[in-house]
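Researcher: We are triaging several targets before committing to wet-lab work. For this one, the compound of interest is zinc ion. I'm pasting the protein sequence and the ligand SMILES. What I need is the predicted three-dimensional arrangement of the protein with the ligand bound, expressed as structure tokens, so it can go straight into our comparison scripts without reformatting.
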Amino acid sequence: MTRAPVPVAVVAALVVLAAAPAGRARLILISVDGLVPERYTSVTGSPLLRDLAARGAFASGVVGVWPTNTRPTHTSLLTGVTPAMHGIVNNEPLDPERRRNPAFNWFAREIRVPTLVTAAEDAGLSTAVVGWPVSVGMHADWLLPTFNWTHPRDAHLLRTLSTPGVFDDYERQAGEPFGWPPTDERRVNMALLLLQAHRPDVTLLYLGEFDAYAHTYGLDGDWTASAAREVDRQLRRVLQVIDAQADPRTFVAIVSDHGFIDVEHAVGPNTLFAREGLIELDEDGGIRSWQAFSHGTGGSSLVYLGEPTDEATAGRAGDLLETFARDERSGIERILAREDLAREGADPAATFALAMRPGYSLIEDTNRLFGNPYIAAMHGYPPERPEMRASFILTGPGLEGTGNLGVVRMTQIGPTLAKLLGITLSPEADNPIPLASR
Ligand SMILES: [Zn+2]
């Protein structure tokens, strides 16, 4: 039997199909620090974000992790697990004596489980990371991490921590130095350069200025509103480039890490510990030694013991906090014990956590029990508070008109994006969000 020749057109079509990376998705994940879901669910929100949400899928709110602070939450977004599991348990390392340079958690090596970036790299996908929190040393093909920028000379440090060549490419194309500090405008410039030059399979971009305005002026402040419009302008620049590339494999996810609550009162429980001898101060008011310390600012704190197994001190500190909580002025809504912390997926090394009522914000000061807050709005309140809800919008092939996914968990977002990319996170990661239309 002779086999009929395969028509040339069919052969050509098969070749095209084989050459196309069938099923291999491309992802641009953009985090807007502090973006609240009302920006795309409310008629008074952003037309750009409302249009994006209408084109694909969106969550009416994202319930975060404990604490609802930038670095733990961004790491949960990438890993699908709680801070207790991924290891970035707060914005700053615990350091009551201030022995270190005042510093955030910066280092990707301290993340204990696979991230979207490491999983993508392991699967042979190319990755670019611009400004993402806790990204110093992240194994991406093209990396501009976020790091300390207290002095203009830190620009040199940022260049050193970035993938060799990316600053040179930027400066060749822009005709000027990358500049200092690393503003949203500059981060977007870098992301656009990488998107156009390399078309990475996975691109992460972080915009941080809206958060700074919301902290300083409150969520309803005029300057915050203009910062929100500036976010739209930056997002529009990115979307224009993505649209021009017209790559049908492309998913765009817009996420955030927490909301905000305006604050009127500052409360410093370490002052109580100092008065009761659980913190010893030096002659300059610095901490010489400590047996109990409330770590964290904003709507919650984690309370640590110098000796975590010292049950006598745990009892003393617990009694002090309970008595204090009965004082209306303390603003303490509830005290979490170890078993509550375990249920929340918060740092297992802490002995207690304090959760504040709206309007009250914790400070770490040892000489100010009550006072005015340093800033206008804070996060860090318990993740179940509606005001703390974060954002999630997802567009891409097969998602047209999916609509409202309801309220989702922050730990579901990484697994959802991993599934689109055909990669896997750790076995402990949360379940992906069901995307019915796919
Ligand atoms: Zn944040």
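Researcher: Any quick observations?
Model: Residues 222-245 form the longest helix (24 residues).
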